[in-house]
Amino acid sequence: MENTQTPLSLGRLLLTGAAGGLGRELRPRLRARCTLLRLSDVSAMDAAQDGEEVVQARLEDRNAVHELLRGIDAVVHLGGISTEQHFDAILQANIVGTYNVYEAARRHGVKRIVFASSNHVTGYYRQDEVIDPTMPVRPDGHYGISKAFGENLSRFYFDRYGVETVCLRIGSSFAEPANRRMLATWLSFADLERLVVASLTTPVAGHSVIYGMSDNTVTWWDNTPARHIGFRPLDSSEPFRAAKEAAEPGIDLRDPAAIFQAGSFVHAGPFED
């Protein structure tokens, strides 16, 4: 497979989860940097623009995923379920689906994947702790467990097959923070783009884990071990602080959502049959 990537181009890129909130934000931002942007989701997507291919596929369909990665230089893997759900649903989309992406990458010689992990891999650390990506995982639910699986799977595919991965433990990526918790976890859309591009273009990614957050004044995450990625956030949640604190003037420290970094995810489930 001829390598078309240049320092100014991301080459032929696959974006899974393209119909989701972050996928829709990244689509035009990445399209401008690619020779080809292939878009995939289980849901319907907008029609292909110049330089795009749109393919509707389920991640648990191994043959479909194999075809998705044909002729691709790198992958931004956002696809899967992004909320706490029954394990059976998480299993298919997030665990089987992520395995299919990595196995297809191995078979097609794809050497760089940016994997959308989550801060919920470490959600049961407390909000009065500052942690870094080298510390043990503490998932806060089925979703967090599936992302921890993805991080371990990507480690295996790097160690055995040389497929580089940058695991993005994304915080809360929205137009603005929705509440006080997000003053610490917020990642602006522009900083999300900077993070993904840095992860795709850093000369040597190896297997890396980095928290996806803007340059917030309050933070629970120390990205020093991932400095080699070259991500420099330029936005901050600070301009939103006064409004968010006024909207939530009191915090109930008996509430686990106010104690643990997971926030409201500690209240999700269990799920009944």
Report on the structure:
Helix 1 packs across helix 6. It contains eight helices and seven strands. The protein has one domain: NAD(P)-binding Rossmann-like Domain (Rossmann fold, 3-Layer(aba) Sandwich), CATH 3.40.50.720. The chain is globular. It has a seven-stranded parallel beta sheet, with helices on both faces. The chain is 32% helix and 15% strand. With 273 residues, the chain is of the alpha/beta class.
Brief rundown of the structure:
With 273 residues, this protein is of the alpha/beta class.
Report, as a whole number of angstroms, the end-to-end distance. 47 Å
Q: Mind describing the biggest β-sheet?
A: 7 strands, parallel
Q: Which homologous superfamily in CATH is the superfamily?
A: NAD(P)-binding Rossmann-like Domain
Number of domains: 1
**Beta-strand level of the residues, as a percent range?**
5-15%
Mean pLDDT comes to 95
Highest CATH level, the class: Alpha Beta
Our Rg estimate from Cα atoms comes to 18 Å
Briefly note the CATH topology name.
Rossmann fold
Helicity level: 25-40%
User: Which architecture name does CATH use?
Assistant: 3-Layer(aba) Sandwich
- Work out the helix count: 8
Report the strand count.
7
- List the helices and strands in order: EHEEHEHEHEHHEHH
Shape call: globular
